[in-house]
Amino acid sequence: MKITKYEHACMTIEQDGRLIVIDPGEFTSSLAIPDTIDAVVITHEHQDHFDPDMLAAIYDKNPTSVLISLQTIVEKMPDHQSKAVAPGDTVTVGPFTLEFFGGTHAEIHNSIALIDNLGVLINDSFYYPGDSFALPHRHVELLALPASGPWFKTSDAVDFMTAVKPTIVFPVHDIHNSSHGQALFHRIVGGFASKIGTTYTPLAITQTIDI
């Protein structure tokens, strides 16, 4: 598989010439929409992960693609072919097998109601938790690790990475950090990654990694 990082929380996963797009939100500007998309996965309803206009553009170029997300999001996109999922579900689309984990967005503040959130494991090797630190309950080769946000604490990210102990980790959900903040995150989390034998690999926008 080839994983490509875009702005903030958006990624594409490519296998055998087919693609899955994850969380194309309002900050996603560099994604040139191809016509090889089998599915779009949306982890939760926040705008930085879920942009209906971007989804409509993807569907316009890929009318057979399927939106895979929570029931509440599927209901907001009635013109799309879709599949509602929940934690514990497994879906196969094209060359991809997707398993879903988690269930709840990380807490921003105790006065703000929690919303649903999905973590997704693709082909038993790549895991992305959305806006949470929900564990995949198995070893994964590649982990997309949240790196910023109003709900975020670096120590939680380190503990999550340590619990998963992936072969490779790269940071995502990073638009809230300045360049100096990113460098600090890389230094701290990269140091902990080396202690557990994990390769820490920051990716620039549109940079890819193969597993």
List keywords for this structure.
single chain; 7-stranded mixed β-sheet; 14 strands; 21% helix; globular
Adjacency order of strands in the biggest sheet: 6-5-4-3-2-1-14
Poorly predicted runs are: none
Classify the helix fraction into a percent range.
10-25%
Principal-axis shape:
globular
Query: What is the C-alpha radius of gyration, as a whole number of Å?
Result: 16 Å
In the CATH scheme, what's the topology name?
A: Metallo-beta-lactamase, Chain A
In CATH terms, the superfamily is: Ribonuclease Z/Hydroxyacylglutathione hydrolase-like
Number of strands: 14
CATH architecture: 4-Layer Sandwich
Can you put this structure into words, describing what you see?
- This protein has a single domain (2-210), classed as 4-Layer Sandwich (Metallo-beta-lactamase, Chain A).
- Helices cover 21% and strands 30% of the residues.
- Helix 3 (154-164) runs parallel beside helix 4 (179-195).
- It has a 7-stranded mixed sheet. It has a 7-stranded mixed sheet with strand order 7-8-9-10-11-12-13.
- It has helices spanning 52-61, 71-76, 154-164, 179-195, and strands at 2-5, 11-15, 18-22, 37-41, 66-69, 82-84, 90-93, 96-104, 116-122, 126-128, 142-146, 168-172, 199-200, 208-210.
- With 211 residues, the chain is an alpha/beta fold.
- It is built from 4 helices and 14 strands.
- 41% of the residues are buried.
- A hairpin with a 2-residue loop joins strand 7 and strand 8 (96-104).
- The model has no long low-confidence stretch (mean pLDDT 97).
